[in-house]
């Protein structure tokens, strides 16, 4: 039987690989956001290109067609579902939120995990709010440090 740690590593690898393929060399950094609270799963990604945060549909110089965007989100969601199903079947607690940052230049991955509910217990907060907040945080850090991409 696969361990949680090996499944998590595989899921992270698949998500980053899919985002790398989507970006097709147009991004210096990839940010992957996953949320799984109370059965609601959410996956999305954004990029850094030319020193600025760029949403997937605005990444310059690549095919950003709706079918391609949907394929990326669907694939990432399928990977998140694998993790969620493993937790459901085994009783293993899974993260309620995963934030991954992959540097294309250094090929390094940083990931942060949360295990508490971050939005589902709040009547006016949605997972997309957390995703947008993270995008703002990354943009602010880029603006504060012009040498960082």
Structure commentary:
This protein is α+β, with helices and mostly antiparallel strands. It has a single domain (4-142), classed as Murine Class I Major Histocompatibility Complex, H2-DB, Chain A, domain 1 (2-Layer Sandwich). 42% of the residues lie in helices and 25% in strands. It contains three helices and five strands; from the N terminus they run αβββαββα. It has helices spanning 4-23, 66-90, 127-144; strands spanning 29-37, 40-49, 52-55, 97-103, 108-114. It has a five-stranded antiparallel beta sheet with strand order 3-2-1-4-5, sandwiched between helices. The longest helix is centred in the middle third of the chain and has 25 residues, at 66-90. It starts with a helix and ends in a 5-residue tail after the last helix. 26% of the residues are buried. The mean pLDDT is 94.
Largest sheet: 5 strands, antiparallel
Question: CATH top level?
Answer: Alpha Beta
Based on secondary structure, the structural category is alpha+beta
CATH topology: Murine Class I Major Histocompatibility Complex, H2-DB, Chain A, domain 1
Shape: globular
Helices and strands, in N-to-C order?
A: HEEEHEEH
Distance between the termini: 40 Å
Strand order of the largest sheet: 3-2-1-4-5
Q: DSSP strand (E) fraction?
A: 15-25%
Question: Which features characterize this protein?
Answer:
five-stranded antiparallel beta sheet, 42% helix, alpha+beta, single chain, 149 residues
């Amino acid at each position: 039987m696969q361990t949680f740690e090996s499944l998590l590593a595989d899921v992270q690898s698949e998500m980053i690989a899919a985002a790398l393929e989507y970006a097709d060399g147009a991004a210096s950094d990839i940010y992957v956001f996953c949320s799984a609270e109370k059965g609601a799963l959410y996956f999305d990604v954004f990029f850094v290109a030319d020193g600025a945060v760029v949403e997937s549909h605005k990444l310059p110089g690549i095919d950003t067609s709706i079918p391609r965007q949907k394929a990326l989100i669907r694939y990432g969601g399928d990977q998140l579902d694998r993790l969620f199903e493993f937790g459901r079947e085994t009783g293993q607690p899974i993260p309620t939120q995963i934030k991954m940052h992959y540097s294309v230049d250094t090929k390094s991955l940083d990931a942060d995990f949360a295990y508490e509910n971050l939005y589902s217990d709040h009547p006016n907060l949605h997972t997309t709010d957390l995703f947008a907040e993270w995008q703002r945080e990354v943009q602010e850090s880029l603006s504060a440090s012009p040498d960082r991409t």
